Every structure is written in structure tokens, then in C-alpha cells.
Amino acid sequence: MCLSVFVRLPLAALVLLATASPTRGQVASSPSIEELAADLERQGPTAEGRFWDLVEERGAPLVEDAGAPGRSVVTFVYRGDAETRRVRLESNINALSIDGITTDFESLGMMERLADTDVWHIAYEVGNDLRVPYSFEVFGSGSEPETVLDSHNEKVWEPEVDALRASIVELAGAPPQPWRGRTAEAGDWDQVELDEGDEARTVWVYKPASFDPESERPYPVLLGLGAFGIGVGMRVDRMVDHLIETGRIPTLVVALTDLRSASEVERYRPTVHAVVDTVLPYLRAHYRATSDPGAVVIAGTSRRGMVSAIVAFERPEAIGNVLSMSGSFYWKPADEVEYEWVPTRVAAWPARDVRFYLAAGWLETVVTPTNRGHYMVSTNRHMRDVLRARGYDLRYVEFNGVHSELNWQDWLAAGLEHFLGPDTR
Fold first, then answer.
1. What is the pLDDT at residue 63?
2. Which one of 53, 218, 325, 394 has the minimum C-beta count within 10 Å?
3. Are residues 141 and 284 in the same domain?
4. Do residues 386 and 347 make contact, with C-beta atoms less than 8 angstroms apart?
5. Which residues does 69 contact at the CB level (< 8 Å), separation at least 6?
6. CA-closest candidate to residue 304, choices 293, 296, 312
7. Residue 106 class from Cβ within 10 Å (0-12 exposed, 13-18 middle, 19+ buried)?
8. Are residues 163 and 216 both part of a single domain?
């Protein structure tokens, strides 16, 4: 994508995309596979060759009209061989194959082999705003499956990062991600080591190209909890470059740091102290960062989204905006009985002067030994309801996607515009 060309989608339109579809999706019969099955009966094995020629021409997965407005049938296909015993679609989209929730997610997504062919397939009916990553687990003659990308799909997410590398299914109505077309950041990163007694805290600071160390006006701040997820998985640098260049947010300073596991035992108070009393003062002293809490956004995904809320609730005089993506609001301290500890405390605390942007995915319905039945989208709805009942300034969205940086980057961008954009402050 040429860097001078950009797509601007108004914030209201992004929210509409995230709330318009009445259903998440469902397992479906694939028109393409049904047609192939009929052709095999009439024409014999030559029909399979023509099918794979079609897949080669059209690409995969196969996307076909579902016969309902805004809906499509998406068929994932894998070409096996004589050694192939089983194939599993590795993607959180498999949540569509259950009615409600599941504790055995690894059993989902098993693809069906069509007759005696090399065609392995699984199909879902989905809304046309879907975007999810996926790969295939191929079980052959060996004891362990091989994870491979879709050889018929040219869309690959983060091909240079092995931990994130995946094929992408991205339908026409998915929110645009124009920053993904950029090949490099325009500004500079600094790696800073801040003394915290027993060990140093690493903070990565991004200065956009428009950053001026002599600026008379202090800069807004994005504090990101999760250096890999936000910095690498979402490429916040390229996203921020795009948002600044297109006038959607002002020049700001981005600072990324990580949680420490020991902080959980103390209800994340060490994280609160580190962010507010160590990181923010350093940014003010060295990067012209603002002291206005209304211009400071703390952001995180999953557990880090929930901790972002804790930091702002504990220290609203320093941080006035929380951007939580699929926050783990089911969490409780080990010595507490009830789960969803943060929403329960918010209900009891005096209201703080803090604004919220919460996003969660329709497909986040997975029960794990950790969340004990309090799955993501449900607990985010509970947090939403508590915040609304207490009168907080809140924007809440649900998106047609999964627990992944590929989806979260939409809402990191939208949340930054919501808090810092020229039309919202």
C-alpha cells in the first residue's frame, strides 16, 4: 500500500461494525463442497482436480453467499496426501461449533475428509465483518502434528514473527487496517532501563517523526502494558504514525512495559506504583510528557487490560483513560473467594474521574481452568454494566473476531481516537 493513500473510517462506523451483526455465526454446509461431492458422483476423480484448480484460481478460504444479508459461508480447505490422517483447523473461530462455551477447545475444528479424496474441509457461516487468524494442524505418520499455513491463501499475518505467523481470513466488511501496509516506522524507539531497587524495569519509548523534544506543549501519552503484544503484535508504531499523519490523533509519546508475575500476588500494586511513580515521571522529565491525566491513556489486552483498569482506579490523579481489549475481568486474587474481583470492587468504590473504552470479541466464549467458567465476553459485559451503573464515561464494543492482536489493533486505534482525537476531547 502506498503510504500516501489511507482509508479513514469514522469512529462511529467502527462501532457500528462491531455491533451490527445479530449473531456470531455457526457451523455451515459448504456450497462448494456439496457441489464437488455431486460432481464426484457424476464425473469421477477428475472432478477433484478441477476443484483444486478452482481453489488455486480463487484462493482460500472459499467465501460464498449465505443467502442472508451481510452473511457468508467460509469454507477452509486443506489438500492432504497419502500420509495425512487427520487435519484440524487451528483458530478460535472454532468457538462457532459449540452452543455456548467449552472446556475442551483442542477437540474443536477437526476437518472432514470428503470421500476418498485429498480434500479436507470445514465451513462456518459468519458475518461479513469477520477477521481471524488461522493455520492447520496436520496429523500424519509421526507422533506430533505439523502446523502449517494455508498454501492457497496469500494473506499472511506477521510473516517475520514466528510466534504470530498465521494465515488470515478477512471478509469485505472487516474494519480497515491501513497501517498494515506500512513496511517501517517513521519515528524512533528508545530502550530505557529504570531502576526499581532489586531489578531494572525495561521501558520501550516510541517517538513519532513529528515529536519535538523542545516542544512547548506537553505530549499526550499512551502507556501500553505488554511490549510484545502492543509493540510487535499490533505494530503500535506504524499505527500511531498513520493516525497522526491522517489527523486522527495528535503527536504523542508511546511507552511500553511489561507486567511482572510477582505483582499479581500483591493485587498488582507494584505495577501501579511502577507505572505511576516511575515510568510517568521519567516520561515527563525526558520526553515532554503531559501531567494532565485526561491526556494519558493506559492500554492492555487480556490480563493486561484488566490491570490497566486497576492502575487507573488506584491512581486516577495520574491516569484518566483506560483502553482495555478483551480484559480478563474474571480474575480474582488467590486469597479471594469470588471471581470478577475488579467489577465487584468498582461497584463498591467511590466513582473515579476515569474514562473507559472496552472491547471484546463475540468468539471469546472459551472456558479454561484459569477462568473457571467466567469467559471473556461475558465478564466484559459484566464490567460494562457495572461501569454504566456507576455513571462512568464508557464506550463499549463487541467485534466479530477472536482473542488476538490481529483483532485488537482495530480497537487500539479506535480507542486512541476516542480519547485523544480532535473531535472527542
1. 97
2. 53
3. no
4. yes
5. none
6. 312
7. exposed
8. no
Q: Are 366 and 92 in contact (CB under 8 A)?
A: yes
In order of 256, 284, 318, the CA distances from 218 in angstroms are 19, 8, 15
Residue 205 lies in a domain: yes
Whole-number Å distance between alpha carbons of 133 and 71: 19
Give backbone dihedrals phi and psi of 46, rounded to 5 degrees, phi first.
Answer: -60, -25
pLDDT value for 363: 87
288 and 416 fall within a common domain = yes
Query: Residue 296 sits in which domain range?
Result: 178-420
Evaluate whether residue 425 is within a structural domain: no
Residues of the chain with pLDDT under 70: 1-26, 99-103, 424-425
Per-residue pLDDT at 292:
98
CA distance 421 to 425: 6
194, β-bridge pairs: 201
Q: Is 114 found in the same domain as 195?
A: no
Instruction: Convert the pLDDT of each residue in 274-319 to its tens digit.
Output: 999 999 999 999 999 999 999 999 999 999 999 999 999 999 999 9
State whether 329 and 301 are in the same domain.
yes
- What distance in Å separates the CA atoms of residue 123 and residue 97, rounded to the nearest whole number? 10
